[in-house]
Design goal:
This protein has 551 residues and is α/β, with parallel strands linked by helices. The protein is built from 17 helices and 21 strands.
């Protein structure tokens, strides 16, 4: 079948306030036939379950594919089926011939495993310490270590949330026609048209906080399989905290994926860059959620993207990655189109993850002439890899987070080596770095006249702690001010600037702001903290060797 773009189903925020009669009506739609258009083709299916907790309906299509819909989408799908059935006098008019579809398909549709206990066996795992020994708080790592889940408990919870009830009522033909017309008016443009509109109207490009709802897409990865060899498809419930929404491991990986596609949307389609934040109970850090106009759902089959930031590449028991050097290189070499984006999650905080910095460097070198966006989260990084990035003259977007710095002497990456990337890639538009690599030499490059003239997003989180102060910006502070001074406002292109964000995710330097918005010098330690340091000693991280080597 044609590649399907499934819109994310949004759980209702008012489910708990619905009356018993309303809930009974919601359940009554189970068993109803539905139709939905994918790239101009109509596909038929059936409502198979109702998830009361989130007010979502499970849909199974006649060809075996499946998805979840919110009320707006399921009502539209029922109305479309009724309208087609009325016009054709029955039969539905949609695609049911699976054999005919198979001839058209470049790859079969992905069916989400219905039983998390029945999944494909993972590849043989290297011997590693127990997962508990590798566990790390998410505050120190964007990809937390995972632990095994109680599948029986998950199944019981799923059963309590879903009910199969025969259909009882249908909307009138007039109401169906009115809903279909309203839905058409509210339809979303395809990614190409949306990008073209955004390019033509710069005033629509928005940056910064969006104040939108934050909604996990439970089946994002199950419905959009990883194309790299060695990936293992699993039901989302196989991963920790499946039912905890924004607290689930799946949503953690979704946030990383969405950030990658937000970078791609800005660098390649001309969109802005919007995000929101939230704080989970019991933690002292802020989580950032990006809102890309198009994401894995839209680009999951694109040969120009090698996406190794995917749930299918994470072992559900110990959190290690299945990603290997040979498989990554094969994905690039065997791509039928020039590779423009490489997104990687090396999961290095979990023992057993094998892919090395040299593996990644070799893969990057394979596509250096066409690479536009590179993202590396929790990857091993040495001087060879940073040099490979500097050899990509067309690079527009770079994301480095929580990478482990490896090597000794000249083999170890430095501030100077990352500065070479900034100097060698003049068309950089997005630079997102959480690493001690970003220091004085990088700021010196950005302060040079004409350096990175198209830079629109600069997010640097690389503070240094001293005996007297915390959260101090690396580098000479007047150089930082000079590097940022002419980039904002009417005469500059920099639209989103975040420097060492504080616990509320507010930048410690705001372009064009007053004295109170310049906090590059960090915060003075309390007398108690200073006294503690005098008693216990202090190892400065100014050289970038102890603090933030993995942040």
């Amino acid at each position: 079948p044609a590649a399907r773009t499934k819109k994310q189903a949004k759980p209702s925020l008012t489910t708990n306030n619905r009356s018993a009669a309303d809930l009974e009506k919601d359940r009554s739609y189970v068993g109803r036939r539905v139709s939905k258009k994918f790239d101009g083709e109509v596909y038929n299916g059936k409502v198979t379950k109702f998830v009361q907790k989130h007010r979502l309906w499970g849909i199974k299509y006649d060809d075996g594919d499946a998805e979840e819909m919110d009320w707006r989408d399921v009502s539209k799908a029922m109305d479309l089926h009724d309208a087609i059935n009325k016009k054709k006098g029955g039969g539905g008019g949609g695609k049911n011939n699976t054999k005919a579809q198979a001839k058209m398909a470049t790859s079969p549709p992905r069916k989400i495993p219905e039983d998390p206990a029945v999944v494909e066996s993972p590849p043989p795992a290297a011997e590693s310490p127990p997962a508990a020994a590798a566990a790390a708080a998410e505050s120190a790592s964007p990809v937390a270590s995972v632990a095994s889940v109680d599948i029986a408990e998950v199944e019981a919870a799923e059963k309590s949330e879903s009910e199969d009830v025969p259909g009882k009522s249908e909307p009138s033909p007039e109401a169906a026609a009115a809903k279909e017309q309203a839905a058409e008016k509210m339809s979303v443009d395809p990614p190409e048209q949306a990008a073209e509109k955004m390019m033509l109207d710069p005033s629509e490009r928005k940056f910064g906080r969006a104040n939108r709802a934050i909604t996990p897409h439970v089946n994002l990865f199950a419905q959009n399989p990883c194309r790299i060899r060695g990936s293992v498809p699993r039901h989302p419930a196989a991963y920790p905290n499946y039912h905890k929404g924004k607290g689930s491991f799946g949503f953690l990986i979704q946030r990383l994926s969405d950030r990658n596609y937000a970078m791609r949307a800005l660098c390649m389609d001309g969109h802005g860059a919007e995000f929101d934040t939230y704080q989970k109970p019991g933690v002292n850090y802020i989580s950032v959620v990006w809102h890309p106009p198009t994401n894995l759902e839209h680009h999951g089959k694109e040969e120009t993207i090698v996406d190794g930031c995917h749930l299918d590449l994470i072992d559900s028991k110990d959190g290690k990655t299945y990603l290997t050097g040979p498989n990554l290189e094969a994905a690039i070499v065997e791509a039928r189109k020039p590779v423009e984006c490489v997104f990687l999650n090396g999961a290095q905080s979990n023992p057993g993850s094998e892919i090395s910095a040299d593996d990644i460097a070799s893969a990057v070198s394979r596509c250096k002439d066409t690479l536009l966006c590179a993202s590396m989260t929790e990857c091993k990084m040495n001087a060879n890899l940073v040099s490979a990035l500097a050899s990509c003259p067309k690079l527009r977007g770079l994301t480095l987070e929580n990478c482990q710095l490896r090597g000794e002497g000249d083999a170890r990456p430095t501030d100077e080596s990352l500065a070479a990337v900034l100097r060698s890639c003049p068309d950089l538009r997005w630079v997102f770095v959480k690493s001690s690599l970003f220091g004085g030499e990088c700021w010196n490059v950005l302060a040079e006249e004409g350096a990175c003239p198209n830079l629109e997003v600069l997010w640097v989180d690389a503070p240094v702690h001293t005996v007297d102060r915390t959260e101090v910006a690396r580098g000479e502070h007047n150089t930082i001010r000079r590097a940022l001074g002419g980039r904002g406002g009417a005469g500059g292109k920099l639209r989103l600037c975040m420097i060492n964000p504080d616990h509320q995710n507010i930048s410690r330097y705001i372009m064009g702001g007053g004295k109170d918005t310049d906090r590059l010098n960090g915060t003075e330690r309390s007398p108690e903290s200073k006294e503690m340091i005098k008693m216990n000693g202090f190892e400065s991280n100014a050289g970038g060797r102890s603090y933030l080597n993995t942040v």
